[in-house]
Structure formats: C-alpha cells, structure tokens
Amino acid sequence: RKEVEQDPGPFNVPEGATVAFNCTYSNSASQSFFWYRQDCRKEPKLLMSVYSSGNEDGRFTAQLNRASQYISLLIRDSKLSDSATYLCVVEAAGNKLTFGGGTRVLVKP
Amino acid sequence: GAGVSQSPSNKVTEKGKDVELRCDPISGHTALYWYRQSLGQGLEFLIYFQGNSAPDKSGLPSDRFSAERTGGSVSTLTIQRTQQEDSAVYLCASSLGWLEIYEQYFGPGTRLTVT
Asked: DSSP letter at A45?
C-alpha cells in the first residue's frame, strides 16, 4: 500500500461549481499535512497547510480526519485557473515529505 | 528574488552514460531536497541535505545515484550508467531550514531522457 494515496482523476468541474477530493495516508504517526498545487509541466508550489481544526483560504478549504487517516480539499466557485494537479503531502518523522500521486482537476467553461 | 534554478532543463543521454544534474537553491536556504517525478506519478524523494549534517540518502534507488552539496549551496545529482527507467523529471527544492520543511520551493526541473 502506498504511503499517500490519491484518486488521480481527472475531476471535470463546471466553472463556478464546487469540487472536493480526499487523500488517504497509511502512517498513523504522520505529523503534518499539506496541499501543493502543480500546473502542467511546472514545479509544485505550496497551496496550504492542513490543520486539525480545518482551515480555509479564500475558496479553498482543507480538513484533516486523523481517526480515518485522510485529508480533504474543497474548492468552491471553481475558476478556470484552478485547473491543475493537487498533490497531497504528508510529513512523517525524519524531516521528509511524502507526496501523493496527485489529483487532476479540470475546470471547464 | 531569484528562485531555485536547475540545469540543464533537458538532457537526452544514451543508456550507460553518466549524467550530472545541477541545482542552485535560494540563497540562505539551508535545506535542499532532490526528487524525481515520472510521467503521471507523484514525487519520489531521493536525498535531503540540511546544513553541514550528513545527508539523508534513504530515497536513492540504487548505488548508481549520488549527490553532493558543496559549500552548503549548489548541489549536483549524479547518475552513473544510466538506464531507461531513470528517465524522469528530476526536481530540486530548497527550504529555509528543517523547521520549514513544509514550504519547499521547487526549481523547474531537469527532464532526463535515456535512450
């Protein structure tokens, strides 16, 4: 089983709609969680951290469920510019980040 | 300011040759990471440098892979006797320090093709 698993998608989303997707992690000792965004043929960039209490950044909401070992990302009022691959990232011990394979989101007019 | 830079941006090499990939991190960043990303796959951790500490090489897939970081700045990833399965995009990232591991700044990558 992979340490971090994501539905690869693509999620085809009408512009203005809401899309949500999850990421599961296998290591219960994982300490910190993040979402990165990667545009086609570009480098990944930090989108947001994921806190136990859940957190919002504009149209983006991230949540953590430690009991079920998953994190989620919800995008409201999707824009065409939200089209990208969203990478789930987990920090375990040893100062290393483990990246999921990414969920591809395509927002269409 | 300048971001992470990598060179070359593209490299095509014949199977069995050695290649060197270079990474220039953001000035002042003490932590440096190498990853590789195969088509449609996630990032695979290769190696991590933090300051003057011994690097974490736990992600290197074989002894054909090695990396150095000179003077706490520029890093070189070397792949000896390249194989076709080494074809991937090699990404370098840096962060301010190990406490800021979550905020890694990535370079544009080197696309390696082994023919």
From this structure: E
- Whether the pLDDT of residue B76 is over 70: the answer is yes
Contact state of A44 with B106 under an 8 Å Cβ cutoff: yes
Nearest CB partner across the interface for A95, out of B48, B91, B109 = B48
Give the tens place of pLDDT for each residue, A39-64. 998 999 999 999 888 899 999 999 99
What pLDDT does residue A63 have?
A: 95
Report the amino acid identity of residue B32. Answer: L
Interchain CB distance below 8 Å, B101 and A91: yes
Contact between B112 and B21 (Cβ < 8 Å): yes
Contact check, Cβ <8 Å, B104/A46? yes
Determine the residue among B37, B58, B111 to mutate to test chain A binding: the one whose Cβ has the most chain A Cβ atoms within 10 Å: B37
Of B68, B102, B99, B62, the C-alpha closest to B82 is: B62
d(CA B58, CA A36): 23
A82-94 burial, b if ≥16 CB within 10 A, otherwise e?
bbbbbbbbbbbee
- Beta-carbon contacts of B63 under 8 Å, excluding residues fewer than 6 positions away, are none
Q: What is the pLDDT of residue B1?
A: 59
- What's the pLDDT score for residue B13? 97
Measure the CA–CA gap between B47 and B71, rounded to whole angstroms.
17
- Token code pair at residue B101: 């591991």
Question: What backbone torsions phi and psi does residue A70 show, to the nearest 5 degrees?
Answer: -145, 155
